TrEMBL record:
This is GNAT family N-acetyltransferase. It holds the Pfam family Acetyltransf_CG. It comes from Sphingomonas humi. Gene3D superfamilies: 3.40.630.30. It comes from the Bacteria. Residues 1-100, 5-91 form the N-acetyltransferase domain. InterPro entries: Acyl_CoA_acyltransferase, Gcn5-rel_NAT, GNAT_dom, GNAT_YJDJ. SUPFAM superfamilies: Acyl-CoA N-acyltransferases (Nat).
Amino acid sequence: MHDVIRNEADQRFEIHLSDGTVAFADYRPMHGKVKFPHTVVPPHHEGQGIGSAIAKASLDWARSEGLLVIPACTFYAKYMQRHAEVHDLLDPGYRKVLGV
């Protein structure tokens, strides 16, 4: 299991990997909403569930803060589209775009 850290100073959620690299998702708080514009998982760590762990932790945080989510990043848009348990977090403008 990977420990996801919320790095408030850099406005991103991070996982520090065993090889010294960092996977992360940037976030931008906005009036009652949060935008996730960019996610990075080092190529040699792709397919290990790292991006999903970051998305889950960050969306749990958004829920706890009462924020709607703007999935500007393709990874977040696809993740939220596939996971019905987070559809209620979607900013209404994105529900139609993602077909949920």
